[in-house]
# Entry
Amino acid sequence: EAQVTQNPRYLITVTGKKLTVTCSQNMNHEYMSWYRQDPGLGLRQIYYSMNVEVTDKGDVPEGYKVSRKEKRNFPLILESPSPNQTSLYFCAIRTREGDTQYFGPGTRLTVL
Amino acid sequence: DAKTTQPPSMDCAEGRAANLPCNHSTISGNEYVYWYRQIHSQGPQYIIHGLKNNETNEMASLIITEDRKSSTLILPHATLRDTAVYYCIVRVDRDDKIIFGKGTRLHILP
# Structure
């Protein structure tokens, strides 16, 4: 069964302090994505990656960076977090041939 | 913007069939209809998807109208554990850029 791991699950930080949320998968899937979820706005895609060293912007990429140096990991980097990045973040994976995405358990981030 | 329209909330009695509607009047010929659900603040869970034929799996059935402008997700015997937000999504097959709308919050009543 596909497994997606996110760390940390909860994080409270302050404005401007760089942070990284990790996402790891155990399925060797090519596609990985990051979403944020906010009340009243649903899930919005931040970045996605179709394979190692291939990343693309989603709908709300501003203020975020990602990297895909190896297939199993897709970290989300906030170089200078701001309060408007307080949100619930999900990582998702799928195979190149797959129709469905598998989501991680979520990371609840609060930026003060 | 999401390309689907769903009612914001619905109630269903436990043990009855839950029928969740979705309008997607601008769907393109190569776009599939997908359904996901999200229980509380967990990660979204895939339920079912289809192109134009009705589909059924162990979780649900998907009925797509002949003109493909709307669909209905059917949970045949709803339980309290089916309480969740249900998202209807249209997307090109294997396109990773998908847009979740606001979904339908389904309340299962004991």
